[in-house]
Amino acid sequence: MASSVNPTVRRRRLGQELRRLRELKGMTAEEVAERLLVSQSKISRLENGRRSISQRDVRDLCGVYEVEDQRIVDSLMQMAKDSRQQGWWHAFGDIPYSVYIGLETDAESLRTYEPQIITGLLQTRAYAEALIQGALPETSVADVEKRVQVRIRRQERISAENNPLRLWVVLDEASLRRVVGGKQVMREQLEHVAEMSQLPHITVQVLPFDVGAHPGINGQYSILEFADAADSSVVYIEGVTSDLYLEKAPDVQKYTVMYEHLRAQALNVEQSRQRIEDVAKEYAR
Fold first, then answer.
1. Is the CB of residue 225 less than 8 Å from the CB of residue 258?
2. What are the HTH cro/C1-type domain coordinates in residue numbering (predicted)?
């Protein structure tokens, strides 16, 4: 469930407002950095919401931008304070993709393409455990369990009674055929996907092998959209050592168009559910 104060989203909104104030002042990030005797990269990280921001940072930036309205300063200071609170995911320790979890927790809708695996929000516990063990063979049993718990907790967003996350998933057929955890695990996993796909806020499509080359051939990505107009859409691309977040309108538009092509080339909803159920039966033999 989305919390009333989401630190990730607060940092994004605060960063956007600080960027707006800088641009109104006609200053570059480099000029601000020189005034405050900090690195330009720090200013950039503060503005893109990837770095925690202190009330002192806000005070110093408001001074540089000559913000005279104390109400604006106080509001930004409060946002900085809220942004330093911890989300539910912090209770699990160091999570590599914690920024993404914060965005997902507050998102109104999520569109994702998965070329190799079943998307995390639709994974069963057994599948998630086998997947993490296989993908991270040197991870301890305790860390595997922690990651599984986080994945299961994330799924509360699609099972919430009020305002559940609207989820649209395009699965490459390879994700149905890649045996993770054994045939029994795969059968239960695909049956779960088929069942979840019948919920009104969840759409699942399968991109069959015979489509050939397609716009998603380069790999997985997700598009997150938010109810608040102040929060721009985000394209998330997961990496091995670092993740990529794209927020510029042209980038988001490009990936959105790619996704529309994927949806058009995939099997329709009924055909996709039938394909998933048929493959699940194959694992039962």
1. no
2. 18-72
